Amino acid sequence: MQFGGYSSSRPLFYFGKIPMDLTRTLILAHIVTALFCAFMIGAGKGADLGLFVYSVKNISDGYLWTFVTYAFVNHVSIWFVVEMVMLYWFGSPVEQFLGTRGFGWFYATLVLVPVLIMLLFGSWFPGFILEGPRSIHFVVFVSFTMIRPDALFFYQFKAKWVAIVFILVYLIQFLAYHMWDELFYFFAALGCAFILLHRRGASGPLAITGWLSDKTGMSPSRMRTRSHEKRVARNQESVQRKEQEIDSILDKISEQGLNSLSEQEREILRKAGKRGGGR
Questions:
Q1: For residue 253, what are the contacts with CB-CB under 8 A and spacing of at least 6?
Q2: H-type helices in the chain, by residue range?
Q3: CB 150 within 8 A of CB 160
Q4: Which of 216-220, 239-243, 249-253 has the lowest mean pLDDT?
Q5: 9, 67, 81, 122, 279 from 14: Cα distances, Å
Q6: For a tag on the chain, would you pick the N or C end, based on fewer CB atoms within 10 A?
Q7: The overall pTM is greater than 0.85
Q8: What mean pLDDT is predicted for residues 154-161?
Q9: How many CA atoms within 13 Å lie on the side-chain side of 143?
Q10: Comparing C-alpha atoms, which of 84, 88, 63 is closest to residue 75?
Q11: Nearest-CA neighbor of 135 among 201, 181, 76?
């Protein structure tokens, strides 16, 4: 089983001789914050970490940064090491699939959107507190299985079945202990990952929506056609706006001369010239 070790073709920077893609950068950030948390607790300042933990009370008190910082309130433990290994093994292939920028938006969505959903339903979960990444890195693992559902674990178990088993374990745990807030948060994060990967054409989500479309009577090709038509319409509108901008600039040149153009209008013409020259 070899999933880790992928690296972006264009690393963000080098840590010594190690090329640091976004996945490795996130791992480094989590390790640094875990050491900081350990130092704060050892210095008797552990209570101050509460300023970085998400809760409805913290948000109502104006601590809006906790929407993001909660994910980096880490505590050194064996489970933390497992999470970092999981992020290394499975985060890198997800980053390869989405690209560095896409993976950045993907990870930010997993951190931020489920919390916003929890806040929206805050009256249901008034005592909900988030400290640490919780289910985020497990969702990264599930995302890998959505991208490569037929990858083998231990040379015989397909990734999609391993993910389904683990999801069922999570579900049973949450239901058995009546952890409704954790259940809601977990499936909110999982839903975000599913939607984002489906939009990028991952095979797992497409297979699931294809199966659902067969059951509901709407073919996948029809669903894809509608989506494609919307994208084409948006692209055509964008092209038309750019053409209108260029036409108005050319009219201005013919009436007032080249020196009448603003710097912004000159930049528009330069970009149009580059696009035309590249054809």
A1: 260, 261
A2: 22-42, 56-60, 66-69, 78-98, 100-120, 136-147, 159-176, 180-199, 203-216, 220-256, 263-277
A3: yes
A4: 216-220
A5: 12, 29, 22, 42, 36
A6: C
A7: no
A8: 86
A9: 36
A10: 84
A11: 181
